[in-house]
Amino acid sequence: MGTIKLQNIRTFSFHGCLEEEGKIGSDYRVDLEIKTDLRKSALTDELKDTVDYVLLNQIVVEEMDIRAKLLEHVAHRIITRIFKEIPSVSRIVLAVSKLNPPIGGDVEAVTIEMEEYRN
Hints:
Structural class: alpha+beta
Largest sheet: 4 strands, antiparallel
Domain Dihydroneopterin aldolase/epimerase: 4-116
Radius of gyration: 16 Å
Organism: Flavobacterium chungnamense
Enzyme class: lyase
Shape: elongated
Pfam families: FolB
EC number: 4.1.2.25
């Protein structure tokens, strides 16, 4: 087994419960970690034998483009899609952070983290 991590994926998205958040948008950071078998690709040196991190990034960016009220909802969509499109992924740890959230205080980020295993 092995781990692939994509860290600090930056997006400008329109998530949030407030109507204004859907109009003005905000900066987000996504950190993704997946577990998969890397033994074959370690021997073959072939992209077809591993998980393409370009595809992982594409899934994250596309799902972050779809408005959600809650970070949990967009995170669930990302996890569901990765499991659906990449059968070799056995575990996902995903953190979605809203940077400088509008919560009336000096808060750098609000982060939710979800961990799921393939059934």
